[in-house]
Amino acid sequence: MNLNLTLIGQIITFGVFVWFCMKFVWPHLLTAMQEREKKIADGLDAANRAARDLELAQKEAADQLREAKEKAAEIIEQANKRANQIVDEAKDNARSEGERIVAAAQAEVEQEANRAKEALRKQVSELAVAGAAKILGKSVDATAHDELLDSLAKEL
Amino acid sequence: MAGNSQEYISHHLTNLTYGKLPAGYVRENEDGTTTELTEATWTFAHGGAEASAMGFNAVHVDSLGWSFGLGALIMFLFWRMAKKATTGVPSGFLNFVEMIVEFIDNTVKESFHGRSALVAPLALTIFTWVFMMNFMDLIPVDVLPTLAMAVGIDYMKVVPSTDVNVTLGMAIFVFALMIFYSIKIKGIGGFVAELTLQPFSAKNPVVQAIFIPVNFFLEIVALIAKPISLGLRLFGNMYAGEMIFILIALMFSAGIALGLMAGVLQWAWAVFHILVITLQAFIFMMLTIVYLSMAHEDH
Question: Which segments cross the bilayer (chain B) (predicted)?
Fold first, then answer.
């Protein structure tokens, strides 16, 4: 175990290896590892964020669905109400139209009856004049007796 | 292997040494004759005696080669994974590398409170490299030396961290960083003050003046003890572990019964050693972080 130049050789060798490690090995490895660590941490963060976002989105979706359902129900209700209203209106319209038609028909019937009565009255008066003429044996001057005939006709 | 157990053990504990033999050294040749060197010669040592004759002008080729090779291997693997690392999904070996990097990053963050681009990569280098060097201990002690002998290399000590040069070399590098950062963060004045004005201090300037050398002595001992304990702790643990592996391996040549027992012992010690090599690598790294953290603290 005598000391000799090996000692110096070993010191130089050691120095060279330490320099090499410091220059080419350690920084590369550590940088790569630290960057990877950061990347993984970022990835985990992103995953957590995504999970949270998903939860929020699901909640929002559920909310929207519920809202949509409520709205739909409301719309259907309104539509039903409106339909009932329309049916009622239609019924009312139909009834009033029918009544109007009936009233018009009655008026016309009455008018016809009046006209018939008038015509009948006129014919009766003419018949009466003709009868009277036959009885009197001469023709009655229609113009002369018009006034009389008219009053007679009105009395009938 | 070797003729007797003492030779076997000392063979296992001898490094492949390349160094300068001084002039006038008498070499023993293979055939028993001797040659006297006329001038200082750089050569491979034949055995421990020549290696120690070389003194400081020698290199443990095996220790340095294995430690450089293992360090280069682990750095290359990590470098390739670093190039492959993206922000995408990691797979296979990259996962393992990132696990280690994250473990070291956390450890550094817990123990080192300053800001430094050096400490974490330093810790990674220490942990992986020391682990690799210690790991050589788990390869059965005879495998690689036998292979080396087959290709004509006489000595091969494959666990670099059982070489005190290697562990102290690393500790001295850490020590240099400690001094560098102490001065950089606190300034020379601050560093000197740290060495001289504590642990004892007094309001009275005369008493303080007496305290300064005492403090300096205590602090210098504490400071020097750090790298020495750092290096010797790793060396001692690995050396002892290796030694036990060698002793167990000795039993293989002592009959079937002892051989079987040695097999069981080797397995058990190897399993236990998995813990030791990891722990020692971790301790070396941890203490480095702590020492550098102390160097960064400004009082």
Answer: 64-82, 112-132, 168-185, 205-224, 244-265, 271-292
The answer as to whether B32 is a domain residue is: no
Catalytic residue among B95, B237, B253, B293: B237
CB contact under 8 A, A1 and B19: no
What span, in angstroms and rounded, lies between the C-alpha atoms of A39 and A43?
Answer: 6
pLDDT, one tens digit for every residue, chain B (299 residues): 445 788 888 888 888 888 888 887 877 777 777 777 777 888 888 877 788 888 888 888 888 999 999 999 999 999 988 888 777 777 888 888 889 999 999 999 999 887 888 899 999 999 999 999 999 988 888 888 888 888 888 888 888 999 889 999 999 999 999 999 999 988 888 888 888 887 777 788 888 888 888 889 999 999 999 999 999 999 999 999 999 998 888 888 778 888 888 889 999 999 999 999 999 999 999 999 999 998 888 76
Domain carrying residue B183: 63-296
| SS3 category, A140 | coil
Q: Which two tokens stand for residue B213?
A: 């050398």
Q: How many domains does chain B contain in total?
A: 1
Cross-chain Cβ contact B165/A15 below 8 Å: no
CA dist., res. A25 & res. A29, Å (int): 6
Tell me if B44 is assigned to some domain: no
Q: Which residue has the tokens 């006489």?
A: B154
H/E element, A137: none
DSSP secondary-structure letter at A25? I
Identify all chain A residues contacting B52, using CB atoms and an 8 Å cutoff: 2
Most A-contacting residue of B16, B52, B56, B163 (CB-CB within 10 A), to test interface: B56
Write out the two tokens for B143.
Answer: 């495998």
Angle CA A14–A15–A20, to nearest 5 = 100
- Is residue B58 situated within a structural domain? no
